[in-house]
Here is the input.
Amino acid sequence: MRHALVEAGRALEQGETPVGAVAVFGDRIVARDHNRVEQLTDATAHAEILAMGAAAGAIEDWRLNQITLYVTMEPCTMCTGAILLARVGRVVYGARDERAGACGTRLDLIQGNPHGHVPRLDDGCLEQECRALLQEFYRGLRSKGD
Here is the structure.
């Protein structure tokens, strides 16, 4: 998760929502990224989506059942859907997302999903550190009036 926090910090420096993701295969990081929505002018350029795409390329398989995905914030509906479709083996996230979290906080797309695959889910990993980056970002937005 510390590597995902570094990615989230990069997003914050670039004016992006500070979410970072790291994909681990065995004991090796195979992909890492952060939100790039503004940079790429692409609403789907979330950290999870970018990291999963890179991980699939790295292991040469779209089935990510042997991947653990570390994310600093609970995945949204789009990212959770992609996690299910890619059959990610395990998801570890830091901060819960009361507004849009789709892994059980706001919605629960994981349990009883129609795809049959249920990843192992662990939440609250380095939650305070993950939340602090988000709070810093949103404080900055409020001070700018955005």
Observations:
- The chain has one domain: 2-144.
- Residues 6 and 20 are 7 Å apart (CA to CA).
- The longest helix spans residues 127-144.
- The chain has a mean pLDDT of 95.
